[in-house]
Amino acid sequence: MHIMEGFLPAPHAAGWALASAPFVAHGVWRLGKAVRKHPETKLLLAASGAFCFVMSALKIPSVTGSCSHPTGTGLGAVLFGPSVMTVLGTIVLLFQALLLAHGGITTLGANVFSMAIVGPWVAWALFRIVRGVGGSLAVAVFAAAALGNLATYVTTSMQLALAFPDPVGGIAASFAKFGTIFAVTQVPLAVIEGLITVVVVNVLSANSRPELQALALLPKEAR
Amino acid sequence: MHTVERLAYTNRWRQRHPADKLILGGGLLVLAVVLPPWPGDALVLLAAAAAALLGARLPLADYSRLLAVPAGFLLPGVAVLAVSLEFSGAGPLLHVGEEGLAQAVSALLRAMAATAALLLIVLTTPFTELLALSSRLRLPAVLLDLMLMIYRFSTLTIETAALGRTAQASRLGYAGFGRSIRSAGLLAAGLLPRVLDRAARLQVGLTARGYTGELRVLAPRRAHCRAFIAGSLGVHASIVVLALAAPASFRSLW
Questions:
Q1: What is the pLDDT of residue B210?
Q2: Element housing A61 (H / E)
Q3: Chain B within 8 Å of A105 (Cβ-Cβ)?
Q4: In this structure, are B44 and B64 located in the same domain?
Q5: Is residue B132 in a domain?
Q6: How far is it, in rounded angstroms, from Cα B208 to Cα B205?
Q7: The total number of structural domains that make up chain B
Q8: Could you tell me the residue range of the domain that residue B193 belongs to?
Q9: pLDDT of res. A180
Q10: In this structure, are B59 and B183 located in the same domain?
Q11: Do B9 and B21 sit in the same domain of this protein?
């Protein structure tokens, strides 16, 4: 769920941009280091970024009959690692604003925070935890994709609640309002994204071992 | 994506310097967020739409469709703002209050004005020219290179994805819920090796041509237009004056 251009008041837009900046800067610094060490990773990264952008533009079936789009953060975090995904996600969000008029420049910071920082890190952490306690690959991928997706919506609800506290009930009531809307519309989508991501990872690990090994060149988080 | 790019390459301001257009649109965007929504954002919306339709001569049908999409996304959010939730002794209580309504209308106005300002930039300036402009911002080189390459890969990958989807749909791949999930997963999984393979082949091709980690492309030479910049700043200034000079009673309407 993108926050549209101009929807947030100026102080909130600036605040979220400042909150996101260190994460993005850290990701860019890591990528720069990786590219200096292995110049061939640059094209690999570009291909991965294009993949994320196209993934986020794919229509996925939704229960209500209308179509929606996956966030792709879970898959990206599992394939590329969260700090790489932060940079790729930021670029994807910028492209969506400039090429699809979806999202915006003033709300880029807030959208980056929910979709390129919280989403990937939650997804990656869940993936590690589930794998760590002996869960199967499918369960780990499903948890990462579905709950990573859900985490972005909870973050977005919180951002909107902070920006628009309810005149009567305050921030808590506003969070409850936005959260209810998202729970109704987004929980099914999160489950669907989880299912699709499981299919993707299953097919990739059956047919595309060399490609997955090539992606291991990307900077990985400390294990 | 097609509509945005088609308009960006065919509008009447195509030959203007991208920085000139960025001054006009970016200034309007800043005003949209900073000025009080009424009447400031109404003026920004009016100015951005006038510039797009009368200045850049964007077709009304395309333009209104592009502006309507974000409006559709906005409505649920605005509706949430208009309704107030109160936890009283008898459980949660929903009602439409004056304050919530004012919040909703001002958020709607601000978002529409800001979207119109953003559209003015992206519909008159091709993406590659915006990217060339941002290279002056002293962003890390790795980020700029990545953006340029991701853009070039994306257009190809979107075509591949669309073809794959048509092929799947014509084999009833999207008939029924379970099958749709499977098809969408297969499509994404098929896309990754293809795009990585394309990157690998490009790597070989570039290396053979002496690629040292820097892509140089020719940017079209464009002249700044002083009259255009002066006019843009004039529009910004008059919006500020009009917005702040509006009678207080008029402003506090919301």
A1: 85
A2: strand A60-61
A3: yes
A4: yes
A5: no
A6: 5
A7: 2
A8: 138-218
A9: 83
A10: no
A11: yes
Tell me, yes or no, whether B57 and B143 share the same domain: no
B241 contact A CB<8A:
no
Model-level pTM?
0.89
Return the SS3 of B92. strand
**Judgement on whether residues B116 and B234 belong to the same structural domain of the protein:** yes
Q: How far apart are CA A195 and CA B182, in angstroms?
A: 8
| Packing angle, helices A170-207 and A73-80, rounded to 10 | 50
Name the residue in chain B with its Cα closest to that of A53: B154
The nearest CA of chain B is from the CA of A6 a distance in Å of 4
Chain segment B55-102, per-residue pLDDT in tens = 889 999 999 988 888 787 777 778 778 877 666 555 666 767 777 788
What is the per-residue pLDDT for A65?
46
Query: Residue A57 in contact with residue A192, Cβ under 8 Å?
Result: no
Beta partners for B92? B87
Are B190 and B235 members of one domain?
A: no
> Is residue B146, in this structure, part of any structural domain at all?
yes
B101 and B41 assigned to the same domain: yes
Phi, psi of A136 (to 5 degrees): -75, 165
Instruction: Write out residues 134-163 of A within 8 Å (CB-CB) of B.
Output: 160
Task: For residue A60, give the H/E element and its range.
Answer: strand A60-61
- Alpha-carbon gap, residue B251 to B36, rounded angstroms: 8
